Amino acid sequence: MIENRFSKLLGEKQMDKRDIVKLTGLDSHTVLKIYKNQTKGIDFATLDKLCFALDCTPNDLFRYVPDSAAANPLCID
Question: FRET label pair with 73: which of 6, 21, 26, 55, CA 20 to 30 Å apart?
Answer without folding.
Answer: 6
